[in-house]
């Protein structure tokens, strides 16, 4: 008793209140223990922060007031919500949105999140994260980015999960620099530290590129992770090693291996020495690359032996097995590979133990295809369901590509027919392009065209390159009308034709004597994008017209355009002056606004995304709402009474 | 303010037209803060009440007769029965007469009572424990006899005339005399801590029924969860025993009761229990439930004696109130003091780590638990670690942690992982945790919509570099977003451009909409009524707003109704 009191007198001498001791005074410059270092790291991050608006909805905790001399910078990072804010109405909203996500109505989920920002029940960051994660899971990156921008603008403070999702999304889109920028802002501005997952995501994304510079960056990230006090993560090392293997740098890969082997199992971390098996897949690849076959096979033996000892705390899972399987089959160890695959299937015991997943099947299918054993490939592919694995579009595309490459159109179409069912992966642009290509290759123009139309009708958005390719083939097959149709469709879809498209369509039309159509297109070009009408094109068209003796048509077209331009200028001037004297028509504004109505095909194939367009929060509206809610009532008066003048007398009567 | 000209926005919160529509009525601009009731002024009697009751003597009164004792009128009523008894004075001697009447004034007992409280806490506490030991066999505290005094303590609350009459006549009639006898007996019993003296004698049912005393009153109030009333009873002179106080404190489980807990603390400080560790712990617990950690800390710092539980309670209190950092600081002090830590301490520390989102420290403490303090981690500690990881959003790490558990994960573990996955929106992990949970405990099955399949499973696909769809997919069309540009022609003052734009922001309909938005659920239409013409800039702004907020905004000005919906107005811009 006496002891405790004396301590408190030292620290909490202030008579009435408990004021937390300034952090620095408690700590010395060097840390005696690891936990002190950890605490300091965390607090350094949190020191520059604002508290979340309502701590668990309770009475405001009388936290120590920020001392007056502390500069209160409104731009300091705010602390994200804690889990405890998720209660009451906000929890209901969260659950509602989770249901929408399960119904796969992501457009509505995202829209409801946006609308809830402007209500008495703002969504928590957790709700936003759930929607973002679902969008990422359905690879709707554009919607993801839009929603993320929106919630950040609306002042919802991101947490570590948000950052991880964001970095993941950009890496999936192969926007590595943006992803790294966001990582940088996480390090510099966020009031929390990156997690192990952040580094896993980053290192994985960067190492998948196979680009030397990026992999070097990944290695420096790994070192950064260690310097931040995070435990050496075997998964991160696994990615680094496989990245180095891609660069044929087996030496460094093996260095990495010895590094991770030494550092695993430090107390105070999740990882234990047994976790070393996580890197065995990439390690085996490195050994194979280095010609050290024996060592590689020793790894396999050790892995299997470990499996047999039951008391191992680290259960080998599908990810480890897949990596090892890949190392085997890619290095001509088919026999061992197949054995391992069978073993994986045998010990697979969902939900307790997952040892096969989609990846395992993909490896096997890929292997069979590359050996030309297509029937076996299809058999393995179709047996996936038995293990409750379902192929995604990428797996379908892979198999279809291989089948088509081997000229097995019938089988490919069979596989294609299996797509798109209930709860199955839907074909994407690449699937159709594969079929279109091979149909043209076999001179089945009509089939190719119908595949193309199917793709467009299902809401997919092929890019200009695909259009050009199809137009080219159609023109070759003398189907000028269809080609022109496609050209018009491209304009409808707001795709901007490139030089190749113009080249193709002019040549096609001129060759078939459809000069009027050519002139139409030129008229439209001049109006919308004059620069696209290059000298070469002009020469070519003039030549074609000369043959028909209609050169003057083109000159007339240009003259018309000049006149129109002048007219427009005059109109603009007139409008401007009119606007100054009278109240300008709001119609102009509205028509502009209405034009922005969505007649745009959605990014995604699903029909749901058709319904409502994404709306961006305009910054000015935000200030409007903010300004209005906090403004003084008196100011309203002064501002609005000016307009109303005498009208104001009717205040009471109107109520 | 009769000269007051201005627009009146009529803006009311009555649901006049449709149940899903809220209508805001705003009489004058001064009332823009419609609806936010002034917070009810808290009763300030809290502090005066105990003082007035404390009266001349010290808290011994409470112990003595188990009642607030010093009530006007009370002493008088005693007079007829016990002629020896004199009105209480701040003098110790006053208490001897009743003891004499009881016939057994044991000397040691007197010493106990005579000892001023402030001299030492120790003997005092002992005394108490004696008391409670004697009480326990009787099952219920204050088994009835003190109840009989209820009418004197609080005549205003329970005016029971017949009861009064009982006591009224100067010469005690035989039946009342028999009633009175046990009182004296039991009283002495308690004082001496000697239950064998006479039988505890449950009170005659007739009297107990007619005269429920404050303590019984308290218990019923507590049972009905009327904490405020119970505290009032406390200050009107009840003298509850420790278990009653504890149950009263347990009833304070909402933040609304922070003030009540403070009052109870006042009461406790004036009562003999003030140095009792148990009641102080209960107070800390109650404070942390009510979110009054600062009060709890104050109490903690002043506690003469703390036990391990006190520390644990403080740390877990901080954790529960999102002040995990303070909890961790406290824990550091605890370690420096060299206290023997137990499993509960670590459970509390882990919850503090969870609330401070201190993952790294969580692991360090978790590992030091067994090594340094010899506490073997139990299920609660593993769950605590999952909490630390889950609350910080480290879901992969949490899953990894579960994989490495030295035992087969229990349903609780999977359930907690599932809940965190739900919170953080990790659909795949949630599904997996749910499957595992159901496989262990089929009773947890809930019919949920099956999760939609992910479109592309990049993480497990193993088809590196085969994702070529981006080469064939057109980028999404960038829609021009609706944006607001202030149209200052409607500001007729002669002020600079910026001031004009500023002025537009405060047009009353916008303020009304802004208020409507932040006070109603999403997608609920708003009705704004204004007796002046809406200005053209507001018309445009509201059009854009209606689109962004996804609501129908119905604005009536003095010309017509404007139904703004999805960026359009029903007036077709016939402004």
UniProtKB/TrEMBL annotation, chain A:
Coiled-coil residues: 547-580
Which InterPro entries does this entry report, sorted A to Z?
PPR_domain-containing, PPR_rpt, TPR-like_helical_dom_sf
Q: Kindly give the SUPFAM superfamilies that the UniProt entry links to this protein.
A: TPR-like
Question: PROSITE patterns annotated for this entry?
Answer: PPR
Q: Which residues cross the membrane?
A: none
Domain of life where this protein originates = Eukaryota
Q: Which parts are the PPR repeats?
A: 195-232, 233-267, 317-351, 357-391, 428-462, 463-497, 498-532
Task: Please give the residue ranges the record annotates as the region Disordered.
Answer: 39-79, 595-615
Swiss-Prot/TrEMBL GO biological process terms:
seed development
Q: Which keywords label this protein?
A: Coiled coil, Repeat
Which named protein is this?
Answer: Pentatricopeptide repeat-containing protein
TrEMBL record, chain B:
Q: Which InterPro entries match?
A: DYW_dom, PPR_At4g14850-like_plant, PPR_rpt, TPR-like_helical_dom_sf
Listed Polar residues bias regions: 126-137, 184-194
Q: Name one GO biological process term.
A: RNA modification
- A GO molecular-function annotation: zinc ion binding
Q: What is the lineage of its organism?
A: Eukaryota, Viridiplantae, Streptophyta, Embryophyta, Tracheophyta
Statement: the UniProt record of this protein carries the keyword Metal-binding: no
What is this protein called in UniProt? DYW domain-containing protein
**PPR repeat feature ranges:** 276-306, 307-341
What NCBIfam families is this protein classified in? PPR (TIGR00756)
Q: Which stretches does UniProt call biased (Low complexity)?
A: 73-84
Region annotated Disordered, chain positions: 49-211
Keyword annotations: Repeat
Q: Which residues form the DYW domain?
A: 483-575
């Amino acid at each position: 008793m006496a002891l405790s009191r004396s301590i408190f007198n030292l620290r909490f001498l202030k008579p009435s209140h408990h004021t937390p001791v300034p952090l620095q005074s408690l700590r010395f410059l060097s840390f005696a223990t690891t936990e002190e270092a950890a605490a300091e790291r965390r607090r350094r991050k949190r020191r520059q922060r604002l508290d979340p608006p309502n701590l668990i909805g309770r009475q405001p905790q009388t936290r120590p007031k920020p001392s007056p001399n502390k500069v209160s910078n409104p731009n300091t990072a705010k602390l994200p919500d804690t889990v405890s804010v998720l209660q009451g109405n906000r929890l209901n909203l969260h659950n509602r949105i989770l249901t929408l996500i399960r119904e796969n109505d992501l457009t509505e989920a995202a829209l409801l999140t946006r609308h809830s920002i402007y209500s008495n029940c703002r969504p928590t960051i957790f709700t936003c994260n759930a929607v973002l994660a679902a969008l990422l899971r359905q690879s709707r990156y554009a919607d993801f980015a839009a929603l993320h921008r929106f919630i950040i603008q609306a002042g919802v403070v991101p947490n570590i999960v948000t950052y991880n999702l964001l970095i993941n999304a950009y890496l999936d889109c192969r926007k590595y620099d943006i992803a790294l920028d966001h990582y940088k802002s996480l390090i510099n501005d966020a009031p929390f530290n990156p997690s192990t997952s952040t580094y896993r995501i980053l290192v994985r994304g960067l190492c998948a590129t196979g680009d030397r510079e990026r992999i070097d960056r990944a290695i420096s990230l790994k070192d950064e992770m260690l310097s931040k006090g995070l435990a050496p993560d075997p998964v991160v090392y696994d990615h680094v090693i496989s990245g180095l293997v891609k660069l044929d740098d087996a030496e460094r890969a093996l260095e990495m291996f010895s590094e991770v082997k030494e550092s695993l199992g430090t107390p105070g971390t999740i990882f234990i020495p047994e976790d070393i098996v996580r890197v065995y897949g990439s390690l085996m690849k490195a050994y194979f690359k280095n010609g050290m076959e024996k060592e590689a096979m020793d790894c396999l033996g050790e892995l299997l032996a470990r499996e047999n000892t039951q008391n191992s705390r680290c259960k080998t899972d599908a990810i480890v097995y897949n990596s090892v399987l890949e190392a085997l089959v890619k290095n001509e160890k088919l026999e061992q590979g197949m054995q391992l695959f069978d073993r994986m299937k045998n010990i697979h015991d969902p939900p307790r133990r997952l040892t096969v997943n989609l990846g395992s099947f993909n490896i096997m299918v890929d292997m069979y295809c590359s050996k030309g054993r297509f029937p076996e490939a299809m058999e393995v592919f179709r047996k996936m369901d038995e293990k409750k694995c379902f192929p995604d579009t990428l797996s379908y595309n892979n198999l279809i590509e291989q089948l088509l490459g081997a000229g097995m159109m019938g089988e490919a179409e069979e596989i294609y027919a299996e797509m798109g069912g209930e709860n199955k992966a839907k074909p994407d642009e690449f699937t159709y392009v594969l079929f279109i290509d091979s149909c043209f290759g076999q001179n089945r123009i009509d089939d190719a065209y119908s595949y193309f139309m199917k793709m467009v009708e299902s809401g997919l958005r092929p890019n200009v390159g695909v259009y050009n390719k199809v137009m080219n083939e159609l023109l070759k097959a003398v189907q000028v009308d269809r080609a022109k149709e496609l050209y018009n469709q491209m304009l409808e879809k707001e795709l901007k034709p490139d030089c190749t498209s113009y080249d193709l369509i002019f040549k096609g039309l001129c060759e078939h004597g459809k000069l009027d159509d050519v002139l139409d297109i030129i008229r439209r070009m001049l109006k919308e994008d004059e620069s696209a009408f290059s000298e070469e094109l002009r020469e070519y068209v003039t030549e074609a017209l000369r043959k028909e003796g209609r050169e003057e048509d083109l000159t007339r077209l240009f003259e018309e355009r000049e006149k129109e331009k002048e007219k427009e200028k005059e109109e603009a001037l007139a409008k401007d002056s009119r606007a100054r004297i009278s109240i300008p028509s709001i119609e102009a504004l509205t028509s502009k606004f209405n034009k922005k109505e969505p007649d745009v095909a959605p990014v995604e194939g699903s029909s749901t995304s058709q319904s409502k367009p994404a709306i961006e929060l305009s910054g000015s509206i935000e200030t409007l709402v903010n300004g209005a809610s906090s403004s003084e009532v008196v100011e309203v008066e002064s501002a609005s009474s000016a307009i109303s003048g005498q009208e104001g007398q009717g205040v009471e009567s109107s109520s | 303010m009769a000269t007051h000209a201005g627009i009146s926005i009529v803006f009311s919160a009555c649901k006049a037209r449709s149940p899903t529509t809220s209508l805001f009525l705003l009489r004058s601009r001064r009332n823009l803060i419609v609806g936010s009731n002034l917070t009810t002024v808290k009763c300030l009697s809290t502090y005066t009440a105990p003082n007035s009751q404390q009266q001349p003597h010290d808290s011994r009164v409470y112990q003595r007769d188990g009642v607030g004792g010093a009530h006007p009128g009370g002493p008088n009523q005693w007079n007829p029965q016990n002629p020896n008894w004199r009105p209480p004075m701040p003098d110790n001697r006053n208490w001897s007469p009743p003891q004499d009447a009881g016939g057994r004034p044991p000397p040691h007992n007197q010493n106990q009572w005579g000892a001023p409280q402030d001299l030492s806490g120790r003997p005092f506490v002992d005394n108490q424990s004696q008391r409670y030991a004697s009480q326990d066999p009787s099952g219920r505290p204050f088994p009835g006899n003190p109840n009989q005094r209820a009418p004197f303590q609080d005549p205003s609350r329970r005016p029971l005339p017949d009861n009064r009459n009982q006591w009224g006549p100067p010469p005690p009639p035989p039946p009342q005399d028999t009633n009175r006898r046990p009182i004296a007996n039991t009283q002495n019993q308690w004082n001496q801590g000697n239950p064998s003296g006479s039988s505890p004698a449950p009170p005659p049912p007739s009297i107990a029924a007619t005269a429920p005393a404050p303590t019984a009153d308290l218990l019923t109030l507590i049972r009905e969860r009327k904490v405020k009333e119970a505290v009032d009873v406390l200050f009107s002179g009840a003298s509850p025993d420790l278990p009653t106080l504890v149950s009263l404190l347990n009833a304070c489980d909402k933040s609304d009761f922070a003030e009540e807990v403070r009052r109870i603390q006042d009461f406790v400080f004036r009562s003999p229990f003030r140095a009792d560790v148990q009641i102080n712990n209960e107070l800390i617990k109650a404070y942390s439930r009510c979110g009054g950690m600062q009060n709890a800390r104050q109490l903690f710092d002043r506690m003469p004696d703390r036990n391990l539980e006190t520390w644990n309670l403080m740390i877990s209190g901080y954790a529960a109130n999102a002040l995990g950092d303070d909890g961790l600081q406290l824990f550091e002090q605890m370690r420096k003091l060299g206290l023997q830590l137990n499993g509960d301490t670590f459970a509390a520390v882990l919850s503090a780590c969870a609330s401070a989102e201190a993952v790294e420290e969580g692991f360090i403490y978790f590992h030091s638990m067994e090594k340094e303090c010899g506490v073997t981690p139990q299920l609660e500690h593993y769950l605590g670690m999952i909490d630390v990881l889950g609350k910080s959003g480290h879901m992969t790490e949490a899953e990894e942690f579960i994989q490495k558990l030295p035992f087969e994960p229990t349903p609780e573990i999977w359930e907690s992982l599932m809940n965190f996955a739900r919170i953080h929106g990790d659909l795949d992990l949630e599904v997996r945790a749910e499957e595992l949970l159901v496989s262990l405990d089929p009773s947890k099955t809930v019919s949920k919509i099956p999760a939609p399949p992910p479109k592309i499973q990049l993480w497990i696909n193993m088809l590196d570099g085969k994702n070529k769809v981006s080469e064939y997919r057109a980028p999404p069309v960038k829609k021009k977003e609706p944006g607001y540009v202030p149209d200052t022609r409607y500001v007729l003052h002669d002020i600079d451009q910026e001031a004009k734009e500023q002025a537009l922001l405060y047009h009353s309909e916008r303020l009304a909409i802004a208020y409507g938005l932040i006070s109603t659920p999403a997608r609920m239409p708003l009705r704004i009524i204004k007796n002046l013409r809406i200005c053209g800039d507001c018309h445009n702004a509201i059009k854009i707003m209606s689109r962004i907020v996804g609501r129908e905004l119905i604005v009536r000005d003095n010309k017509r109704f404007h139904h703004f919906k999805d960026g359009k107005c029903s007036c077709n811009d016939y402004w």
